[in-house]
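Thread: sodium ion complex, take 2
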Amino acid sequence: MRLFIKSVATVSKACGVVAAVLVLLAILVVCQMVVIRYFLNDSTIWQTEFVIFSLVAATFIGSPYVLLIKGHVNVDLLPLYLGERGRRMLALIASTGGLLFCVLLTWNGFELFVEALEGGWTTDTVWALPLWIPYLPMPIGIGLLSLQYAADILALVTGHAMPFAMEAHNPYEGE
Amino acid sequence: MDPLNIGILVSLVTIVVLASGIPVAFGLGLVSVGFLVAFEGMDALGVLAETFFAGIAEFSLVSIPMFIVMGSAVASSPAGKDLYEALDRWLHRLPGGLIISNIGACSVFAALSGSSPATCAAIGKMGIPEMRKRGYPDGLATGAIAAGGTLGILIPPSITMIVYGIATETSIGRLFIAGLLPGVMLTILFMGWSLFAAHRGGYSFRDAAMGFSFAQKMEVLPRVLPFLVIIAGVLFVLYGGVATPSEAAGVGALLCLILVAVIYRVWQPRKIWKIVSDSMKESVMILMIIAASALFAYMMSSLFVTQTVAESIAALEVNRWVLMAIINLFLLVAGFFLPPVAVILMTAPILLPIIQAAGFDPYWFAVVLTINMEIGLITPPVGLNLYVINGIAPEIKLTTILRGALPFMLCMVVGIILLCIFPEIATWLPVALMGIAL
Amino acid sequence: QLKASHQWPGGKGDVRDEMVQIIAREVAAANVDLELKVYPGKSLFKPKEQWSAMVKGQLDISAFPLDYASGRHPQFSATLMPGLVKNHDHALRLNNSPFMQDIKKIINDAGVVVLADAWLAGGFASKKNCILEPESIKGQVTRAAGPAFEQMMAGAGASISSMPSSAIYQAMQTGVLDAANTSSGSFVSYRLYEQVKCLTAPGDHALWFMYEPILMSKRSWEKLNKAQQDALMAAGRKAEDYMTAEAKGLDSKMVDVFRKAGVEVVTMSAEQAQAWKDIAQDTSYKLFSEKVPGGKELIEKALAVD
Ligand code: NA
Ligand code: NA
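Output below.
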């Protein structure tokens, strides 16, 4: 069980790396696009969509990592007033709700991906990128997010983790 | 069920669900899914993934991570310190000179960053310890930074303005300009209060004792100059017709990364990596909320709640200023509990038709809305800036920070009132620079 | 109770909004226990999402520019292809041609029903000179409406910059853009007459037409009884008649507004339009024929309509 929680955490951290790389890539492509369009006066074909989809992918793939470090902002008014036990119960309820939504979204996202793949859908631009490519990060990222949620719940139940990360709930880590 | 009653039910359920401490993004998603299934059946989930995806697959949103990178690159360098130091060397003779310098630095930094927590962190990291060292009370020091940091979403660039622009189909470039003078106005109000508070408390003595020679005053300028050049550059790119806000943001992000690498020698891969991954965390958090808000807005519209609420408010026929006061109160309360992007995406579709029907300018309203959101950033339970201050100075109690921040919140309320009396503060510059809105 | 959505402002006189409103009124008047709830101004779905929402039965009715779904059915690009429709009368003849029968079969097979046909015209405008023969656009930074137009105009030597029609005004004002191609409605509503020197109106030999029918989800359609289906079809015809009468009016309104603003207004001659089609032959038609199954036949069938 410890192993499961640990390996999920490792996967989530890897997701964080992938997401950060995607953000960096998007920055570079935006700059390349600006150079081509405004300095070389050339048309750009793939850049706009590439930038949009890589940031969408970064959002989905980065979300398990952000959950791992408790970076998804929440309202922690009620937990503040509860005792240790109540807090644990509430955290369990909240996490189960979150997991439920994420599982639904994963499943739905997977169906969308399959539809796009089988239907041969593309974007309606000159580039005509096959749509399954930008759709794929959703089932993967949100799927791993569900896994991270499951690990969090497990850690809560077995008492390995503090609910709501009360001590370090700052998403910016003092930066 | 009558859409209006559904609307009340949605509000209650949303409050209960979010109060459980579930992350705002998943809470909004869960509420949306629950209501869609309850009122339209399981089939309604057929559009779940596509709506969620389409909520963030938008070129204008690209600028959000970019502006965050810009801010966090500069924040990772000692630029924030240089900024208020430069101001301090010129202003230290004023009572409360250091605090005024910090607020000034916040407003200059706000022009580099689209987010408030980033602004707060960039200046506060060095500014708060320095102020406390020089004898300023904890409350005033942290309150000033918490409030000064909120300028990040008013002074362009601004993440909330980008989201507002997308939600209401208004020009993002124009929204940015509309926020400029009000940002300056708030800066002056904040400084005014600090001056008064410092004078009343007599905290000026240790500042005045330190003198700076003219050479010292000139010496800091070259370190601040590059950032002023980037600010000017991004503004030129935006309004000189060179590129769209997203493109300007991307170029600005790369320039800031290069600049901190060259000037502050933050070039080690580990440090650059930290900048990128910190920005990734913040933008993932924001974009997930935006995607979930898109789902929420779809649910509200599909159940005809949005339309019905808007119609019934419009049918009230109250005085437009009473209406504006009610809307402000509502936004203020929403801002206590929710981060700005969620508030904007959930309420803009309802509010904008009402606002326009009542004869208010959508750009002016964006500014008023943003100032409301700024107040929300420094109120519990969800106040992103409070988290940041807590990270910088964990030993200072939340109540102390709040007591220090309260007068600044009142300054913002005064700001909103001034904007109501003199709407030109927000509307004059856009017209002067870009002509009348379409 | 049915949901109808579209992307244009509601209740402000937009013809496509009016078509949907007509259907809503007619269906209500028919007393067949059917009510249409209209969601204008993308208040329910984003414009391009409407297609799959209809396919899935989550949206019942939409005023939908068919080309938006060309990522899923590439054949739909033929409904936003340069030079296939010459003028409004030609568009009416096209509606019942083998070309449109093929297109409507694809629409049907995808799970969507056509309630009313509608074609909207558009033109060109430039800050520099009148766009008439292909040479006149050479070297100008141009915004084109639709990939097929981008290909043709690039073929004529224009430099293409993609942006939504709502961004044209500012792009022209700041000098990013020299020329633009968009619908007559957009030319007026975005006040482009304040920016341009010359407008090329549709006239008798237009290049830009777009098919923007009223569509209905087949799933929703099949849930209705015969009386309700008949009422919807009758309402659709009413909306179509209204559109036929209004479509030309849109163009003349644009011409009036631009003239009043002191903009020079011209139309293309048959020869000038042909010169553009020759370029399209080597660019957009060629690519469409190569890439899209049955594309070559579609173009031929469309060009065969006199
Ligand atoms: Na800012
Ligand atoms: Na708050």
